[in-house]
Amino acid sequence: MSLETLWLALLGLLLAGYFVLxxxxxxxxxLHPFLGGRTxxxxxxxxxxxxxxFFLGNEVWLVxxxxxxxxxxxxxxxxxxxxxxxxxxxxxxxxxLGNAAIQLRGRADSxxxxxxxxxxxxxxxxxxxxxxxxxxxxxxxxxxRRADGSFHIGVGDVLTPxxxxxxxxxxxxxxxxxxxxxxxxxxxxxxxxxxxxxxxxLRAAGAVGCLPLLLTLFGAGxxxxxxxxxxxxxxxxxxxLGCAWWSLTRGHHVRAFAATCCATVLPVVLxxxxxxxxxxxxxxxxxMTIGHAVTDGVxxxxxxxxxxxxxxVILAYQSWSWWAFRGRTGDRHPSYF
Amino acid sequence: MSAADLARLQFAATTGIHWLFxxxxxxxxxxxxxxxxxxxxxxxxxxxxxxxxxxxxxxxxYVINYAVGIVTGLVMEFQFGLSWSGLSKFAxxxxxxxxxxxxxxxFFAESTFLGMWIFGWGRLRKGVHVTxxxxxxxxxxxxxxxxxxxxxxxxxxxxxxxxxxxxYLTDFGALLANPSALVALGHVALAALTTGGxxxxxxxxxxxxxxxxxxxxxxxxxxxxxxxxxxxxxxxVVVGEMQRxxxxxxxxxxxxVLENSGVAEAQxxxxxxxxxxxxxxxxxxxxxxxxxxxxxxNTVSTLTLIAVVLLWKDWLIRRRVFSYVLVAMVPFPFIxxxxxxxxxxxxxxxxxxxxxxxxxxxxxxxxxxxxxVSCTVFIALFLALAxxxxxxxxxxxxxxxxxxxxxxxxxxxxxxTEAPAELTY
Lengths: 337, 425
Description:
A: mainly alpha, B: mainly alpha, two-stranded antiparallel sheet, 80% helix, globular
């Protein structure tokens, strides 16, 4: 494997990590008004308690993704972010509000103040979830690139059945994933509620997820370079959703969460592997190849020397933080958010 | 306003507000780490309890402040690609590497470890818990280093060569040892410690004015704050002056504006080198900011030195007027910090990468309408967040240690009041 493919894989790993970890954050954020637990009189919320110790460590996966995008693929970064300008701004607005609201909600003095933060927490989960889905849809479908390689998405590009269906599917997927996480982490009664919600959401995600698939089969959806790989990945996604549904209805919480993790990772893999060696395609079938996107060889070698050490270290201390805060949360655990 | 102006305003607002929170984050975290270490090393249970409350009180203020720092930092990371794709086109091979390394080495670790520290009270072993806050402090400063390596390349590009209109990295060591980055790191770190020290001293003094019950807690905090701010503010002035020769050598126009002489000659020389154009940055803003920073730096340095002397026999607390001075001093390091930022960044104009790429040539081909909307939204959002955050910091700073939520398990009495209500379900 060449160095540039390795860095594309690393970029994919960071985005996939963000989708898994940020995904359950957004899901729990959207569901938290329904999964508060019994302690109505205090400021505690069971769903927020479940994500709390991991929240700060989850969001940085996105920051690392952007950093690596700039460091290793500067030409893709400039073109991609400015081309998707309105969507990226919307994602950022959602992230800023959701992030601040989660961290400051516990500092509110009154129930009214908390309700405001709660509304922002839901909004800050829903907006990025939907917009990431729209971004995925656009990338799968191909963007309107000009001759000089730049592009700008307009309202017309986003408001197509395929892109909208991708947005809705991703939002439902993240919500389901959040429900599966709360099922794993919360007290039994909250977990039961989350499980029921999760099963219902899985059905919805499965139903809505058929739309992009059908649209692609009828030629109005994704324009993929590697058809066979994409078909396998789509089948795996369907299998992951099925496995999640089967496990959740039978009470296998760990298995269900593992399945929703796979389901949130697979769209990222699909965008990367489905288009390879393109990193950005236009609807006409052309696009920016990895060779055009990647940084100079000298820079890439230096980054690799750091990456070989850093990536295992990052994975180690992130795993340590998951291990240190494993198990179910309860009322006696320190709460802060 | 042109697209370039809007993009510039959006970037300035994001960075400026980010910096005002970062300066306190960097200033407070070593103090919190010192307090936590002292608490962990204390054997006497009563004194240990006081020191633990001290850590949690200041730690909570630090964590509240961190919320705005992280969200503005998140937006910063995207700004380059969003509105300045010309920068990645020209300097992506060089400029991207330090940013990527900053996220992988510093930001990632800082955020993960802070999350663990916040929720680690009563759950992690003491040694591990203390190590975590030191790791957070270390990575905060590592983050500052990498950001200044990237920023140093904008101020004084080194270690690269231009081939076919694109910069290529030739000497990574030169990029890392850029004097424009290293001296600035020293200055920024000391400015942050001054801010943190003055903040801790000022709030402690306020509690003495109010006649606090936590005299031991705030006496300890006051001593630490006064000592740190005295040492840091002395050296921040010294290191600040050390930047002048670097500027003189690398940025003649900024130097001419600061000296207020030779601006016309510098302009003529730059026209000769880079073709016709206006190479004079916004002179008044730079000079006023420089003066404000210098005056505040010297005043804080002098006052904290006097304060250290007055720590003897607690004169600082016994005479109310001294305490009032300490309280009044709290906002000034922030103003000086903003001034320093203006001198460095406005003084860099019209260049994005000095001598190589102008700001107006780097702006993305994004529509003016999109930029106007995003600029308005971001500025409104960040101002609202900044005001909310400062309100919360002030509220929890003034309430004192008994209102600290960080590290407190949920108060159990509330469960008693809930029990009868449950019977009616």
